[in-house]
Each structure stands twice: as structure tokens, then as C-alpha cells.
Amino acid sequence: MLAVVLIGTLATALSIADPAQAPDGKAVFDAHCRKCHGTTGRPTPAMKKLLPELPVWDAAFFDKRSEEDVVAVLLNGKGKNMKPFKELLKPEEMAAVARYIRTLKPSAAAGPTNKRGACVGSAPFVRQCALIARQQA
To answer: What is the pTM of this model?
Structure first.
């Protein structure tokens, strides 16, 4: 029941937060999430080897998850390796991270990627895809 109340409170914070007073989602992400998830939601090969269940945040990942879903994972953790952040982060910080993570969704202009998030296709296309991906990072 407490989790439902907290998620409801966080959902409200997501929709009415004043951007001028809201925590910096990128700064919170960099401090608490980047080590495992990478700077753009693509874990490093070493981290992926250590934690193979870590998802790559591709377009399909974002299409299946809302900001509220991200907050729920931050609150409750996921699997054996992602511990809950409810003791480390304030509700408004979780909401800021959820908003920031949504900005990491790859654009359609970046083109298709494989399961590791690497650009695929012809050589000119892959160069253009990689260039766009670097600009988004």
C-alpha cells in the first residue's frame, strides 16, 4: 500500500514539477546510475559482461516504459542487482531522473542498431549513425 501511495505521489511530482526548482536529473543520473547504465543507457562491454541482464536503452525499451515505470524501478529495485533507491533519493530526484532518462531515447535519425546498441547497415550509414549517436551523448 505504501508503494502505491509513493508511486502516486511521484506521478504527481512528474506532472507538476517546476523545472526551475526541480533537481537536475542528469546530475542525479550521473551520480547514481551512469556506472552501470552508461552515459546513454548503453552499458559498457565490461559492465554488460558483469551484469548481462542490464538492458540496452533502445527505442523499444522506451516505447515500453513510462516515467512512472522508471520511478517504480527506482523505488523498488529490479532483479538481484538493481537495489531500491528509496533510501538514497528523494521523490523529486527520482522524478527528475525519470524525466532525464526519457531524453536518452534514440532518435529515428540515428537508424537501426543491434542488441548491443551498435549501428548496423552499410558503411556510410553506420558512419552517419555513429555520428548522430555521439552528438546525442
So the answer is: 0.64
